[in-house]
Amino acid sequence: MDYPLEGIRVIALEQYIAGPDCTMWLADNGAEVIKIERPGIGEPRRNYLPVVEDENGNKAYGGFKIYNRNKKSITLNLRSKKGQEIYKELIKHADVVVENLGPKTIEKLGLGYDVLEKINPRLIYAAISGFGRLEDFRGIYSDRPAFDPVIQAMGGILDHIGEEDGPPLWGLPGLADLFTSVITGYSIMLALFMREKTGVGQFIDSSMYDCMASLNAMGIMIYSFAGLIVRRGTAGKFQHPMGTFKVKDGDYVALLVANDFIWERFCKAIDRTDLIDNPLTASGLDRVSNRDFLDPIVKDWMEARTSEEVVEALIKEGVPVGPVRNTQDLVNCTHLKARKMLLEIDDPIAGKRIFAKSPFRMTKVKDIPMKTAPDLGEHTDVILKDWLHYDDTILAGLRSDAVI
After folding, report:
1. 130-151 mean pLDDT
2. Which end of the chain has fewer CB within 10 Å, C or N?
3. Mean pLDDT along residues 267-289
4. What pLDDT is attached to residue 236?
5. pLDDT score of 103 more than 70
């Protein structure tokens, strides 16, 4: 066995990021992921920039390639009665469905879990939504559509990003989608493990809003314990110094002196051991209360040294510190290359392009396959022949009727 999910069949009714990223990780680990798309159109991100065009005018869109490697694509018109019948036939052979269509879309089609579990009781159905799907857990937002910045804002994440006296910022586009993708994938693994014991599947209700609230767990705890609202520019209520600091070459480094042990090491690194027991800086709360005294000392030391000098001096004393890097730095990072985190996929149109790899290593699992994202409907015939035993005559009729 080369991959942990070999033999697991996943149907992906997905769009944008959260669903596609989740199923891509499943595909990376051996699952057969069948991406179902609208005939002639495909999912919305199929034409998301940036784009590369070859000499024949063929285009490859990076916005689609990034979340759809190692999958198979079939086209199926789920608004047609025949298309729905075919979908239900496919469900009989599937282990997992991952779906993140708009609110009520799947129910209007009559293809919800309540219908599908009767067809396949072993089916695990993972529904990703903005605010949750289960009727027993409905809230005032349940029927709202949602995109990443909206969920980050409502989940309190944007309130952490930016200057204290400035507006909240959308710091990492896609964070809500990507974190929800990981949580959903983890839930699918739990459901598969549980199915091994019980023999039956279940419904997974994966809410992006819930995921952002869980990501904000520290802020919730601090408010509950201390009555403090941790927001942008105010995170250092208990320890200092912390944050980003400008250095001599104009770059920035990130630092958190998380406790008094690290503070002692920091003082040794900057050659200011007199600060270790100074009443103004002896404890985390002292350092927070006396930032006007401490910050100029730290600032002057940082700005007199390059990023490399700062990192070397602090690491030597065991102080966690790192440079603030951009994506070009990551692509050229020798450590990431040693970790094999940078995946080079040879696309027939775009050529060799670099993508981020799934960020975990398992000693008994082979390197992930490197198949580029599929063309629209590339595997329609082979899947319908393999799973449902359709012949060419049936396929031709389905195409004539615009079902596939």
Report:
1. 95
2. N
3. 96
4. 64
5. yes
Q: How many CA atoms lie within 13 A of 52 on its CB side?
A: 13
- What angle in degrees, to the nearest 10, is found between the helix axes of 18-28 and 175-198? 50
359 φ, ψ (degrees, to nearest 5): -90, 50
Mean pLDDT of 208-225: 95
Q: Distance between terminal CA atoms of the chain?
A: 34
Residue 163's pLDDT band, with cuts at 50, 70 and 90, is: confident
Give CA torsion, residues 281, 283, 284, 287, to 10 deg: -20
Please give, one letter per residue, the 3-state secondary structure of 158-212: HHHCCCCCCCCCCCCCCHHHHHHHHHHHHHHHHHHHHHHHHCCCCEEEEEHHHHH
Contact at 8 Å (CB) between 12 and 377?
no
CATH says 242-327 is which class? Answer: alpha beta
Q: What is the CATH number of domain 9-215+374-400?
A: 3.40.50.10540
According to DSSP, residue 150 is labeled H
Read off φ and ψ for residue 112, nearest 5 degrees: -75, 175
Catalytic positions, please? 177
What residue spans define the domains of the chain?
A: 9-215+374-400, 242-327
Domains 9-215+374-400 and 242-327 share a fold: no
**Strands 32-37, 9-13: parallel, antiparallel or unpaired by DSSP?**
parallel
Q: The tokens 């930032």 sit on which residue? A: 291
Are residues 130 and 154 in contact, defined by beta-carbon separation less than 8 angstroms?
Answer: no
Look-up: residue for tokens 């990072």? 333
- What angle (nearest 5°) sits at the alpha carbon of residue 380, between those of residues 376 and 385? 170
Which residue has better confidence, 228 or 254?
254
Q: What is the mean pLDDT of the chain?
A: 95
User: Is the distance from CB of 61 to CB of 36 less than 8 angstroms?
Assistant: no
* Residue 294, pLDDT above cutoff 90: yes
Residue burial 32-44, b: 16+ Cβ < 10 Å; e: rest: bbbbbbbbeebbe
Query: How far is the C-alpha of 153 from the C-alpha of 148, rounded, in Å?
Result: 9
DSSP conformation letters of 61-92: EHHHHTT-TT-EEEE--TTSHHHHHHHHHHHT
How high is the pLDDT of residue 234? 72
